[in-house]
Amino acid sequence: MRKAYEMVFILRPDLEDAQVRAAAERVEGRIAERGGTVVATELWGKRRLAYPIAKHREGYYGFLRFELDGQRVQDLKNAVALHEEVIRFLVCEALPTPAPAPTPQAAEPVPSGGGDGGC
Q: Hey, what CATH class is 2-93 in?
């Protein structure tokens, strides 16, 4: 059964912009090879890492939202782990997007009690 997933990945900081886009497209290709569909892709740019990963202090962050059969997720993880441009990634099941809250309507004025003075 197909489910929605999200992946955040970090690419090596020594890549050029074209190489970053190409690496993200290769990850998207791995999803497509397994019968999935990519819903959204965002490249967040180069950022400082919280701690060194493979002697890197920075990395290019990317985000993918995709749909894939749950039985193919581990296979996808194994394939992405083989990319030498990817230094870290995380795949998790996406939470459903909440529906927008209805806009509150203006409250109608309450008619006055008419002078009987109480309850």
A: alpha beta
